[in-house]
């Protein structure tokens, strides 16, 4: 199964692609989609949407694992991220890719085994689980890989049942 993990944003969208057979996970690629500050929100959203379609067409994922919104104190930023998340979900729907959504707590639980783990712990476990010598960079890409790992773990019991 190929999983496309997505860490939504409107300035930076992290992505990570994992191949898994339920027993092992291999990274097929990771990186970011970035949009230029100063451009209008609608242009940035259009760019995210188009780049998401390219990612989906390149990797042909069986599913997407997308982080649910987490609002900090800046509601304006949260709304813009919500818009970006919407076009990300739309891109998946337009290519008929099933979408699974996870909270940060669920990702931490799946990757570290503790829902209140620190970001540094999640990143280190992601590095170890995927056999990287160094931490994947930037952080948005590492977060997207963690989202893909989260889905691999949450769906692995159904994978074993099908074999």
What report would you give on this structure?
- This protein is of the alpha/beta class and 163 residues long.
- It is 52% helix and 21% strand.
- It is built from five helices and five strands.
- The chain has helices at residues 41-59, 75-94, 104-112, 119-130, 139-162, and strands spanning 2-7, 12-20, 25-34, 63-67, 99-102.
- Strands 3-2-1-4-5 form a five-stranded mixed beta sheet.
- Strand 2 and strand 3 (25-34) form a beta hairpin.
- Helix 1 packs parallel to helix 2 (75-94) and helix 3 (104-112) packs across helix 4 (119-130).
- The longest helix has 24 residues, at 139-162.
- The two termini are 13 Å apart.
- The model is unreliable at 157-163 (pLDDT under 50).
Number of helices: 5
Overall pLDDT, averaged?
90
Question: End-to-end span in angstroms?
Answer: 13 Å
What is the ordering of alpha helices and beta strands? EEEHEHEHHH
Question: What order do the helices and strands come in, and which of them pair?
Answer:
Blueprint: E1 2-7, E2 12-20, E3 25-34, H1 41-59, E4 63-67, H2 75-94, E5 99-102, H3 104-112, H4 119-130, H5 139-162
Parallel strand pairs: 1-4, 4-5
Antiparallel strand pairs: 1-2, 2-3
Helix pairs in contact: 1-2, 3-4, 3-5, 4-5
